[in-house]
Amino acid sequence: MSNQTPDNSEPTLPLLRQERENVVDFGGLCPLYYAPMHYPTEVELYEPSFDPHSAALHENSRQPAATVKVQVPLPCGHFNIWRPLHDRRAPVAARLARFFVGSAALQPDGRVVAPNNSTWDSRISYSSADDEYYENGHVLPVINGWRHGTLAARSLFRKVEHDWMMTYLAPEQGNSHQQPLAVWRFNYAESRRAVERFHAVLGFSLFAESAAVEWCVRPLSSRRFRRIPIHVLTPEEARYFSEIGSGDSGESHADDSLEQRARIIEQYCGQILAYRASSNEYNDYVVHSVPALAADLTQYVEGEYGFELAVSFVPASEGPDGWQKAQVARQSLHHPISGRMREGEDALSRCGLDFRIKLRDDIVVPPVSVELTHALTATAPEQRLCMDGPGCNFTICVRDPENTVGSLQPPIGAHEHVLRADSEYFAALLESDMAESSSKQVELEGMPYGPVRSAIYFLYADSVPREESMDLNDWIVLLDVASRLSIPRLHQLSQARILAEVVPDTLAALQDPSDEDSYKVPAEYPDLETIELLQGVAADTGAHDLAQALDRLVAYYPIEVCENRIRSSPVGEFVPPPPHHMGTHDHDPGIRFAVGRAQGPFGRGPFGHHDFEIEGGDPHGPVQMPIMAGPVIHPEIAPGFAHAGGNHRGVHDGGFLGRLLGNWRLTNIPNNGHADPPAPQPGPVPDVPHATHAHMPPPESDSESD
Questions:
Q1: ω into residue 622 within 30 of 0, thus cis?
Q2: How does pLDDT run across 71-110, given as a tens digit for each residue?
Q3: Burial class (CB in 10 A: 0-12, 13-18, 19+), 294
Q4: Residue 504 and which of 357, 395, 632, 646 are 20 to 30 A apart at CA?
């Protein structure tokens, strides 16, 4: 495999290379909804809990009653549209506390909170050895099944080699209709927090020169994917990576090995590092990604609310087993993740896929500077200085253009060292040879008196007077004053308050429950005139963070409305087609979407049309999927259900319909329709968590191996 250069960033797969019609166009991909499963298959780490100390009895009622304070951890975003994402600092459910002793902080009320020094705010890890996803470094599965953790996937399956004790994701055997593909989607627009850093472990392996794995990334505000380059380390470079077992690096490199390693990683920032392994009797060409090394992909998504990450496979063109020459998330079955509670996050270093995101607020308000703190407490540490108080040695006079009386407002008294500590304007003035520096008095022309007084008061009190009563215009004026007086902290605070005034509190008003197709209509921000006005204000006052936040707001508003409408709509249209398990492989060769052919409401593809192809049928003509009432239930979700081939009431056997249903079953359950996604039901937690899943498919055959 030849090295890829950052200049050639266009994906190879046509589905990823094509430009989308708009930001809510899924480009032929069909988002699929997978219902949460029962424990121990999956758990809900951040379920609502109650504080027992807040319980209050009510004796006036006829029956004993009590009220308690319920704590509901709000999500910071969504994973693949439907799955909520939580900040790792959010408390884990109290009933799971005993599973994380030693790996997180146990609070007096029984809650578990991740340490404050955590590097990443959001983290999703996938272990192919367990076929489970983990969130925020907690070693309990939140999603079972690799496919259930994707936005969309096709022509892939999880291969288990019992002879080599390895497992990985690989293309389906014998598939020649579609190029294998998997997509993951992250969106943090709900919390108004942008991506500050994004690192990812994207493990892959190649066992033939004609095989390839291609990783691509797309910010949700962009209509194109970009290919992530892969750099294969030279033998000299590989010597500094001890985890790949490249041999003795020599004593001459012992002292500078870490420095050289850091230089190599920095040089190829934004690329995935891989290495050429030694050939063996089975494969002459072997390339692996560097194990557990997270690639720095910040440059592709920095400052965005969300992104999509895609991987496509190119099977080898030679040999009968060319389909398994391109692999992703290859792991040993000897080292699973599930149940390694004492190891904590260290166990997740063995995951083949690991997505780590550091978030930041739209507008970051810095803390009070050390210089200003010292200036306020320099004379008397136990007592802070105050504006217009004793010891003021500098006077500020304001000539307000709106003052109709014609006289100056009362002068503002301040301390010279306080002004110098947190205002670049006053610091430069006092250090100059101007008359104001020697007279200790300045007259500000053309500035409003009230906002100027509020700005000086802010230096002393770290707050704005009557802040709760200020409206958008008041904050705009204060932003201008903070810009002219060069008070950075007040400048950032004003930007944050202006943004909060224009961000809508809820999207419920834009959703029409009576119209099931309302989510298919792209939405625009309702008040573009205000946005344009504020963008002009931001340009005049140097409010760069506000300008970027407004641009993100306009770009992501249609996306957020679209996803909210999808989550609020019946899930029947997004339920995946029934898989048809052949043999013991975890793949679905029986039904394939006719991606890229029909024109759906979300762009090219079958979205909303239920078009798919039956293997052995006409590959050029879509077959209409029959619609049946009732939710789709899988044996893993409902253990009492049998395979469709069995003789059970309500299950069709044989023929076209039997092939269509596979081992899924369509049934009617009272009070459980398609109106809303089913709520997670974690159930009781066993004493000793284990990785054994009930009602799993039969063990996979080891007949297919390298």
A1: no
A2: 778 899 999 999 999 998 888 887 777 676 555 566 666 6
A3: middle
A4: 357
Q: Are strands 230-233 and 212-219 parallel, antiparallel or unpaired?
A: unpaired
Adjacent-strand bridge partners of 217: 226, 309
According to DSSP, residue 350 is labeled: G
One-letter-per-residue 3-state SS of 72-109: CCCCCEEECCCEEECCCCCCECHHHHHHCECCEEECCC
What's the pLDDT tens digit per position in 332-361?
999 898 777 667 677 888 899 999 999 999
> Which residues make beta-bridge pairs with 194?
360
Checking if the pLDDT of 230 tops 70, the result is yes
Arithmetic mean of pLDDT, 174-180: 79
As beta bridge partners, residue 193 has: 361
Question: By the 8 A CB rule, do 133 and 124 touch?
Answer: yes
Distance, CA of 112 to CA of 90 (rounded, Å):
8
Q: Which amino acid is at 653?
A: D
Element (H, E) at 563: helix 544-568
Give the DSSP H or E segment for 604.
Answer: strand 603-604
Instruction: Produce one character per residue of 469-488: b if its CB has 16 or more CB atoms within 10 Å, e if not.
Output: ebeeebbbbbbbbbbbbbbe
Amino acid identity for residue 347 in this structure: A
Residue 589 identity (one-letter amino acid): P
- DSSP assignment of 405-457 equals S-SPPPPEEE-HHHHHHH-HHHHHHHTSSSHHHHHTEEEEES--HHHHHHHHH
- The overall pTM is greater than 0.70: yes
Q: How many CA atoms lie within 13 A of 43 on its CB side?
A: 23
Token pair in block for residue 365: 């308000």
CB atoms within 10 A of CB 267: 10
Answer yes or no: are the C-beta atoms of 595 and 31 closer than 8 Å: no
What tens digit of pLDDT does each residue of 555-612 get? 998 898 888 888 888 888 788 876 544 333 443 333 333 222 233 333 333 333 333 2
**Per-residue confidence band for 407, with pLDDT thresholds at 50, 70 and 90:** low
